[in-house]
């Protein structure tokens, strides 16, 4: 019989679909199983309205087999089958779909779970096959036909004999090349894995012959005539079951199995949304971060399904970066199975789903913080840095979504508190939210600058994560209360009398302080203060860059040249102040030595390195030995 040409743009279009629409060869089996599922659905649906069609639903199934020697994979279904005209129309014209037409002809509340819509999924099989043979007998005909094609050159259709209705698709797998291993698809384990990954929730049983790998060679012949058939797929996804009938163990087992975690999830979040967008989601907050979570290798994303068939294993567009720790699945009817990654990124439906999911996660976390603080503390210990990074990232555009989820250590309560809790407990007359940053709680607690705030009985937030100050800077204020770093020179907690005393002290020693500034060079100013209580010296900063921020910048691989503008403050009430005044008058060389030692002490207290520790060590020993 003469070979027929495809009615579309033939080779060019076929090549375009195979190479552009599908970038992952593994999905060919998903597409063919989805087509088989459609055929089964159509047959069952028609049997409900056509008395001539008798269907035993228990016999509606999909069978997969393979022959390693002949290099073939066979996908068979007991569905509605296709007539000669339907084979010509559906397989002879690329991008024409009987499923789409059938779906469009449905009215009212009629429902059939039709997956394919654009008719291109079948042709993905040419990514792994050099010939495809389709034998089908329609429920409307006693005559069967075989459609066969080796690709873009065309196809043939011949009448054949077939005992039962349905469709058999035989893929002749390509030989291996230097770059492609096609033989892997002629492997029981690989085929099972692909079915479970992409088609686990097809609503009809997918059956496959099981090889008894555990048997000895002499035992295997006993099973040749009695091969065991295994149902590979689960059929009903957990998220489509009645929520009230799902146990905690079922959720836990699903999570641990699907996401390869040995521990139970910390939180399960379910959604079922109908309206402008329709979808179901089953989300999990892990109890611990994956080993690669804070590395470039980590991939965020939710498994995206359409009617139980996986479109994408990790759809990153469904989660904002600050919720990248969330695992789960989303199943929607509003996306085509054949949608490409590029089309997904532009999909209005996907953007609506992502927006809803973001809001749902945020509300669940807010509820957890209020109603189950112990669990939230556990969550925040693991993923709090990611939330704080989300506050700061993208120039703080998401700060309003996240500011009520972040927490910081309270000096007064000695535990983590939210910004709202801090503000709600502020003392009368307190106008700012005070914080101090450092590498640990103990180090912050011993900082000279915190004493003045504690003396006022004000609570202090201790910031110990590298991103904390950046997050605070992005938030700027909370409920009208601005943030104040105790290290900053702008901190204003002195009484008028104290301010006047300090001003007088600095004016009387202007020349001496100027001499110290010139000697030290790295500081922008040196001055006396009465804020230090028992401590002799400390470093203060001017402007937006703090000492802790400078440490973060210094740790980056590229030197950004961003430095904190520092001020050396000396306690005017400490004996060292009088010692300096005396040395300035009597021994300038000794005065300079003391200046360097005091500045080095202030850097050590601030957690900054000393450029020449040997020099400072020698100076200290020299001064002590006198």
Summarize this structure briefly.
38% of the residues lie in helices and 20% in strands. It has 21 helices and 22 strands.
Descriptive terms for the model:
8-stranded mixed β-sheet; 626 residues
Helices and strands in order:
Elements: H1 10-21, H2 28-49, E1 62-67, E2 72-77, H3 84-92, H4 98-105, E3 129-137, E4 144-149, E5 155-160, E6 166-173, H5 188-198, E7 206-210, H6 217-220, E8 228-231, H7 248-258, E9 267-273, E10 279-285, E11 302-306, E12 309-315, E13 327-332, H8 341-346, H9 348-371, H10 373-396, H11 399-402, E14 407-410, E15 415-418, H12 419-424, E16 432-437, H13 441-445, H14 450-455, E17 460-463, H15 468-475, E18 477-478, E19 481-485, H16 496-508, H17 510-520, E20 525-529, E21 537-542, H18 547-555, E22 565-571, H19 575-586, H20 588-606, H21 613-625
Parallel strand pairs: 1-7, 11-13, 16-17, 16-19, 20-22
Antiparallel strand pairs: 1-2, 2-6, 3-4, 3-6, 4-5, 7-8, 9-10, 10-13, 11-12, 14-15, 14-17, 18-19, 21-22
Helix pairs in contact: 9-10, 10-15, 19-20, 20-21
Plain-language structure description:
The structure is a single chain. Helix content is 38%, strand content 20%. With 626 residues, it is α+β, with helices and mostly antiparallel strands. An eight-stranded mixed sheet has the order 5-4-3-6-2-1-7-8, covered by helices on one side. It has a six-stranded mixed sheet with strand order 15-14-17-16-19-18, sandwiched between helices. Strands 9-10-13-11-12 form a five-stranded mixed sheet, with helices on one face. A hairpin with a 4-residue loop joins strand 1 (62-67) and strand 2 (72-77). The longest helix is centred in the middle third of the chain and has 24 residues, at 348-371.
């Amino acid at each position: 019989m003469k070979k027929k040409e495809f009615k579309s743009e033939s080779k060019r279009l076929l090549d375009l679909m195979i190479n552009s629409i599908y970038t992952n060869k593994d999905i060919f089996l998903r597409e063919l199983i989805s087509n088989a599922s459609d055929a089964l659905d159509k047959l069952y649906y028609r049997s409900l309205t056509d008395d001539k069609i008798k269907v035993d639903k228990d016999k509606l199934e999909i069978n997969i087999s393979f022959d390693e020697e002949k290099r073939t994979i066979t996908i068979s279904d007991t569905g509605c089958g296709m007539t000669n005209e339907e084979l010509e129309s559906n397989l002879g014209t690329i991008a024409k779909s009987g499923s789409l037409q059938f779906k469009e002809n449905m009215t009212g509340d009629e429902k059939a779970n039709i997956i394919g819509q654009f008719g291109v999924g079948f042709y993905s099989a040419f990514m792994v096959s050099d010939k495809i043979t389709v034998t089908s007998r329609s429920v409307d005909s006693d005559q069967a036909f075989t459609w066969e094609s080796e690709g873009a050159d065309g196809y043939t259709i011949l009448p054949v004999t077939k005992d039962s209705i349905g469709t058999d698709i035989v893929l002749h797998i390509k030989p291996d090349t230097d770059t492609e291993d096609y033989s892997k698809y002629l492997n029981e384990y690989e085929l099972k894995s692909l079915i479970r990954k992409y088609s686990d929730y097809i609503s009809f049983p997918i059956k496959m012959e099981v090889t008894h790998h555990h048997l000895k060679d002499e035992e295997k012949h006993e099973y040749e005539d009695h091969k065991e058939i295994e149902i590979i797929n689960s059929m009903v996804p957990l998220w489509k079951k009645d929520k009230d009938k799902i146990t905690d163990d079922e959720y836990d087992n699903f999570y641990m199995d699907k996401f390869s975690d040995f521990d139970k999830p910390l939180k399960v979040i379910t959604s079922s949304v109908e309206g402008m967008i329709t979808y179901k989601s089953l989300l999990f907050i892990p109890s611990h971060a994956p080993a690669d979570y804070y590395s470039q290798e980590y991939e965020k994303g939710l498994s995206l399904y359409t009617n139980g068939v996986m479109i994408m294993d990790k759809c990153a567009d469904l989660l904002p970066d600050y919720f990248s720790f969330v695992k789960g699945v989303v199943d929607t009817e509003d996306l085509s199975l054949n949608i490409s990654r590029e089309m997904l990124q532009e999909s209005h439906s996907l953007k609506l789903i992502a927006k809803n999911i973001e809001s749902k996660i945020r509300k669940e976390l807010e509820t957890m913080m209020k109603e189950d603080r112990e669990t939230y503390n556990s969550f925040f210990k693991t993923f709090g840095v990611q939330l704080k990074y989300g506050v700061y990232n993208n120039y703080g555009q998401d700060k309003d979504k996240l500011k009520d989820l972040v927490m910081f250590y309270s000096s007064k309560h000695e535990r983590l508190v939210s910004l709202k809790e801090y503000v709600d407990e502020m003392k009368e007359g307190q106008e700012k939210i005070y914080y101090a940053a450092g590498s640990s709680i103990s180090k912050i607690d011993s900082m000279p600058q915190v004493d003045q705030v504690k003396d006022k009985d004000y609570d202090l937030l201790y910031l110990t994560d590298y991103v904390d100050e950046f997050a605070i800077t992005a938030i700027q204020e909370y409920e009208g209360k601005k943030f104040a770093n105790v290290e900053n020179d702008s901190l204003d907690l002195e009484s008028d009398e104290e301010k006047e005393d300090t001003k007088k002290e600095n004016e009387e020693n202007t020349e001496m302080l100027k001499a110290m500034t010139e000697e030290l060079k790295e500081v922008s100013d040196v001055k006396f203060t009465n804020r230090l209580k028992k401590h002799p010296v400390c470093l203060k900063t001017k402007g937006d860059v703090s000492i802790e921020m400078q440490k973060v910048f210094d740790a980056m691989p590229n030197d950004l040249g961003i430095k904190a503008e520092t001020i050396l403050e000396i306690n005017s009430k400490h004996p060292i102040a009088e010692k300096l005044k005396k040395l300035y008058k009597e021994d300038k060389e000794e005065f300079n030595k003391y200046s360097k030692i005091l500045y080095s002490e202030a850097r050590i207290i601030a957690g900054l390195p000393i450029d020449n520790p040997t020099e400072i060590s020698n100076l200290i020993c020299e001064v002590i030995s006198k």
